[in-house]
């Protein structure tokens, strides 16, 4: 009897401790015939735990499909009156594993950091400061959301919805990129300044998405820019048919003209 009481007490304490924790995850298995190359099968499984206590939230992400489970993210955010503090506590591996194919960084860099933001009564503006010395100004004015970062690299982003078109324009170190999203006759269209075009047809749970992926030019990596070479790739298109199954999973078949391949992917989220 005492053992049962003790077990019940432990169970009660554990349940109470988990009351402020939300656990979500996803898993998928993909088969790719890889065109004329050998076929392959890949897997992915991820978990995310979000713990909340008052105005403080901690989010932990984990990649669990490898031989050893690995943390993929750790973030904390809290609010103290008009001040919001956000901390990125996970230092991911940023060094590229290949020096000749996909580009990427030559050396490892630290990407943890803390950002402190202050809401001030000036047109719904927020003033932020991170540990790198960057100053971030953001807010919504006359329906236009603007974010301006002043630091080593000055970045300004403006987004708005005008006449049924969602627009976003970003200028970073003098280089401007933009994205347009709209719906025409039930077709969701996305166009970017990189000449990437996406069109999604159908209803929720049964869709066809056609994407044109722009060409990538050869880039010679340099030590000064801390990057490797990037191999040139011709433009190609993909067509993906996605269907929600009664089992709760989603089945997606994707054809790519890049290598004349067909990929079948079964995925579930919870």
Give a structural overview.
This protein is mainly β. Helix content is 6%, strand content 56%. It is built from one helix and 18 strands. Strand 8 and strand 9 form a beta hairpin.
Concise summary:
The protein is mainly beta.
First-to-last CA distance:
38 Å
Strand content: over 45%
Describe the main β-sheet briefly: 18 strands, antiparallel, barrel
Number of separate helices? 1
- The strand count comes to 18
The oligomeric state is single chain
- Low-confidence runs: 1-16
Order of helices and strands: HEEEEEEEEEEEEEEEEEE
Q: What class, by secondary structure content? A: mainly beta
Chain-averaged pLDDT: 88
- Rg, please? 23 Å
Which percent bin holds the helix content? under 10%
Shape: globular
Features:
270 residues; mainly beta; 18-stranded antiparallel beta barrel
Topology record:
Blueprint lengths: L1 H16 L3 E12 L7 E14 L2 E8 L6 E11 L2 E6 L24 E8 L4 E6 L4 E7 L2 E7 L4 E8 L2 E8 L2 E10 L2 E6 L4 E7 L2 E8 L22 E9 L5 E7 L4 E9 L1
Antiparallel strand pairs: 1-2, 1-18, 2-3, 3-4, 4-5, 5-6, 6-7, 7-8, 8-9, 9-10, 10-11, 11-12, 12-13, 13-14, 14-15, 15-16, 16-17, 17-18
């Amino acid at each position: 009897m005492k053992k049962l009481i003790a077990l019940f007490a432990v169970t009660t304490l554990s349940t109470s401790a988990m009351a402020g924790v939300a656990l979500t995850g996803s898993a998928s298995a993909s088969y790719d015939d890889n065109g004329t190359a050998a076929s392959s099968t890949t897997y992915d499984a991820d978990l995310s735990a979000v713990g909340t206590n008052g105005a403080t939230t901690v989010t932990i992400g984990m990649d669990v499909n490898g031989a050893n489970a690995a943390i993929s993210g750790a973030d904390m955010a809290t609010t103290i009156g008009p001040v919001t503090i956000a901390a990125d506590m996970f230092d991911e591996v940023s060094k590229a594993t290949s020096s000749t194919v996909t580009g990427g960084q030559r050396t490892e860099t630290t990407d943890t950091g803390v950002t402190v933001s202050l809401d001030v009564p000036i047109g719904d503006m927020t003033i932020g400061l991170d540990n790198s010395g960057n100053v971030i100004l953001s807010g919504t004015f006359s329906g236009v959301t603007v974010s301006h970062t002043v630091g080593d690299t000055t970045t300004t982003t403006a987004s708005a919805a005008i006449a049924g078109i969602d627009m976003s324009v970003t200028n970073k170190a003098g280089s401007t990129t933009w994205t347009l999203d709209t719906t025409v006759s039930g077709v969701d269209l996305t166009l970017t300044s990189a000449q990437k075009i996406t069109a999604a047809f159908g209803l929720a749970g049964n869709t066809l998405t056609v994407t044109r992926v722009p060409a990538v030019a050869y880039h010679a990596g340099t030590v000064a820019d801390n990057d490797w070479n990037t191999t040139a790739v011709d433009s190609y298109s993909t067509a993906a048919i996605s269907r929600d199954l009664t089992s709760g999973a989603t089945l997606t078949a994707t054809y790519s003209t890049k290598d004349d391949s067909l990929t079948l992917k079964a995925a579930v989220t919870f």
